[in-house]
Specification:
The complex is a heterodimer of chains A (526) and B (143). The longest helix of chain A has 18 residues. In chain A, 45% of the residues are buried. Chain A contains 19 helices and 21 strands. Chain A is an alpha/beta fold and 526 residues long. Chain A is elongated. Chain B is of the alpha+beta class. Chain B has a six-stranded antiparallel beta sheet. A three-stranded antiparallel beta sheet of chain B has the order 4-6-7. Classes of the chains: A alpha/beta (526), B alpha+beta (143). Chains A and B meet through helix 4 and strand 9 of A and strand 4, strand 6, strand 7 and helix 4 of B.
Chain lengths: 526, 143
């Protein structure tokens, strides 16, 4: 049986660990060391971007610096990760000349992940491989992997979550959880698991390492002998360390932070609401990561998590997205009453279209605060009515429940009336849901082409199908402050008896009106 | 022969190396790119890093890198020379290497130092096809 080296380099900082990857890979490529299984740990915690990523886009540098979290760049591909001292890294460095390792990446990934999967199963965790390169437990990721190669040698590494500090991860990395809301934290926790959660407590680190070594020995048919770094690796480490500490390496890839966008969408299917939070690369126009949540029923329960994984790196383009979603649903058994593949396509497209909203005069950070009915934002034109919610009038206002306003200057609604008046638009205060239906139906009957309105996202999501049914094209601007939905008082609001005051987003409303109000507008750039 | 071996195109008008780069002579310069086998087995290519035009390259030095499905591949220059052009379109749309690896998905143009390129060290299309066949057989045997 072939003997490999088992190398445990203990807790090290990020630059040392990255320089060690370089040293071991180089030594293996030059035939100076045997094939190796290395365990790596980080102290302090490190935010690590993938080889081709830009730090500014992926990492919250201020947070990392003020919390003594190292920032560095991996040799391997993939996305940014937070590697904290509770995690255990494993990596295989081996020669590509052996027949076993000459396979195409897809085959190699499976083979190499197999060692870690066997280890997890031996520890009592039902782990499986999920293409391309995750190890998951009932749909939740427990280990991510990535690799690289150099002149006949390759390095394949994975992180094993022993424990999981989701809050620090969200604070250290730029993830689709900007506001650190409870539900965002829950959302991440649902998608990721760790040994501690699966087993009730984390096994001692020595036990985990022994299990991983056994797992790889079985999967690869090799045996391990513990060994240290060779003199060549020690020399390389010392020589390479300054390079891996340097800005030239860590910030080697520079890309505008604005290329990274967070786009949201809510799509109401007959069987429930689908919510999308999408982390998009605006330059390459593709999905980096997507979260799919909602109140629809799905069997198997992991369906949405698996779809999220399948959509990683998918182009944000209709044909490709539809193809990816249809391939996903076509390849498995599933059951979702009142929701089908096309609903996910529509939800994703709704989010994806927001990539282009800045071309129509909306600030990139505000694109999620505009919702549209029937048409994408760029096609909403010639709006001649502005519909405003009574809940944005003060509770003391004599006109709060009236379709009227004297523009007294006491609230944002008066300002919105002024904006409408200046543009020759009709302003209408909507006093309850039935009034909204009547108004939209009436406007449509009058031949109005489209309208602008203001409402909270929860209201839009709830009534999306009603808006579509009535059939008047429109653009809706989100509102500020705590809404009736946040307070659980939607029933009162529906009837027009909600007793709190919300605020219109006047700056954004004005930008929307500038684009879509009144007469046909000229295209941007003409 | 399993696994759709025949599906990978290997045009006869260029040479190949074992890292799955193709090399084509055009007058006094050579054009390089990644092969159909590489793009097909790597999957969707997400990033391509190209050298700066004007850079001097030497055998054993990295010429370009690309990333697909979290795998970073590095490709060394097969010859000493100067980079005279890079495919800017590929840089902004890496999927071109998947869509048209021998055409619009080209990577780099190099003007080699005179007579520096040893064409015999590279594979002809026929030899490369045999090389791929060998890889596939090994892969199948390893399963």
């Amino acid at each position: 049986m072939i003997t490999w080296r088992l190398l445990d380099t203990g807790p090290r900082n990020a630059a040392e660990n990255m320089a060690l990857d370089d040293a071991i890979l180089e030594a293996r490529a030059r035939g100076l060391v045997p094939n190796t299984l290395r365990f790596l740990q980080f102290s302090p915690a490190a935010a690590l971007v993938g080889y081709h990523q830009a730090v500014e886009q992926e990492v919250r540098l201020d947070y990392c610096h003020s919390h003594a979290i190292d920032v560095n760049r991996r040799l391997t591909g993939g996305g940014a990760i937070l590697f904290d001292p509770s995690q255990l890294g494993w990596e295989i460095v081996a020669g590509r000349d052996e027949p076993l390792f000459r396979a195409r990446p897809e085959t190699l990934y499976r083979l190499l992940a197999e060692g870690a999967i066997r280890a997890l199963r031996a520890l009592g965790v039902e782990a499986s491989f999920r293409p391309y390169n995750d190890i998951e437990v009932h749909g939740r990721k427990i280990s991510g992997t990535g690799g690289t190669e150099r002149e006949g040698a390759f390095l394949f590494q994975g992180t094993l979550l022993v424990d999981f500090d989701v809050v620090t991860m969200i604070k250290a990395l730029r993830l689709p959880a900007e506001k650190l809301k409870d539900k965002e934290i829950v959302s991440f926790k649902q998608r990721v698991t760790c040994l501690k959660e699966e087993l009730g407590q984390a096994p001692p680190i020595g036990e985990i390492k022994a299990a991983i070594a056994r797992g790889f020995a079985e999967a690869l048919g090799v045996s391990f002998t513990p060994g240290g770094l060779s003199p060549a690796e020690e020399d390389h480490l010392a020589a390479a360390l300054p390079r891996f500490c340097a800005t030239d390496w860590i910030h080697r890839v520079k890309r505008p932070p604005a290329d990274q966008r967070f786009l949201t969408a809510a799509h109401k299917a007959p069987g429930g609401l689908i919510r999308i939070v999408l982390q998009a690369d605006a330059h390459y126009r593709r999905i980096k990561q997507v979260f799919i949540t909602g109140d629809f029923f799905a069997y198997p329960q992991r369906l949405a998590y698996d779809l999220e994984v399948a959509l990683k790196n998918a182009p944000l383009e209709e044909t490709a997205l539809r193809g990816a979603v249809e391939r996903f649903f076509g390849g498995r058994e599933w059951f979702m009453p009142g929701v089908d593949a096309e609903d996910f396509v529509q939800a994703l497209l709704q989010a994806g279209r927001k990539l282009d909203y800045p071309d129509f005069g909306l600030p990139a950070e505000a694109v999620n605060e505009v919702f549209t009915i029937r048409k994408p934002y760029g096609e909403v034109r010639q709006a001649t009515a502005l519909l405003l919610p009574y809940c944005a009038k003060p509770t003391w206002c004599a006109y709060r429940n009236e379709d009227a306003c004297i523009e007294c200057g006491g609230c944002t609604v008066g300002e919105a009336y002024r904006l409408a008046r200046e543009r020759g638009m009709r302003a209408i205060t909507i006093t309850n849901y039935e009034h909204l239906e009547e108004t939209l139906t009436q406007l449509k009957a009058e031949g109005v082409e489209s309208f602008v309105g203001s409402c909270c996202e929860a209201f839009y999501a709830k009534h999306q199908r009603d808006f579509e049914r009535i059939g008047l094209t429109g653009a809706l601007v989100d509102i500020d402050n705590v809404t009736c939905y946040d307070l659980g008082e939607e029933q009162e609001a529906h009837q027009g008896t909600f007793d709190k005051e919300t605020q219109l987003k006047l700056d954004l409303l004005e930008k929307v009106l500038d684009r879509v109000a009144g007469e046909p507008l000229k295209e941007v750039g003409t | 022969m399993g696994n759709g071996m025949h599906q990978w195109r290997c045009p006869a008008d260029r040479h190949y190396d074992a890292e799955h780069l193709w090399v084509k002579r055009e007058g006094d310069k050579i054009v390089l790119g990644v092969t159909d086998y590489l793009q097909d087995t790597a999957g969707a290519i997400l990033y391509v890093q190209l050298p700066a035009p004007g850079a001097e390259v030497a055998p054993g030095e990295q010429l370009l890198s690309l990333e697909a499905a979290k795998w970073v591949g590095h490709f060394n220059a097969p010859v000493a020379g100067r980079v005279i052009a890079v495919n800017e379109e590929l840089r902004s749309r890496p999927a071109l290497a998947n869509e048209d690896p021998y055409g619009r998905g080209w990577s780099v143009e190099v003007r080699p130092v005179t007579d520096a390129l040893d064409w015999d060290a590279l594979m002809t299309a026929g030899a490369y096809r045999d090389f791929l066949r060998e890889l596939v057989l090994e892969e199948e045997a390893g399963r």
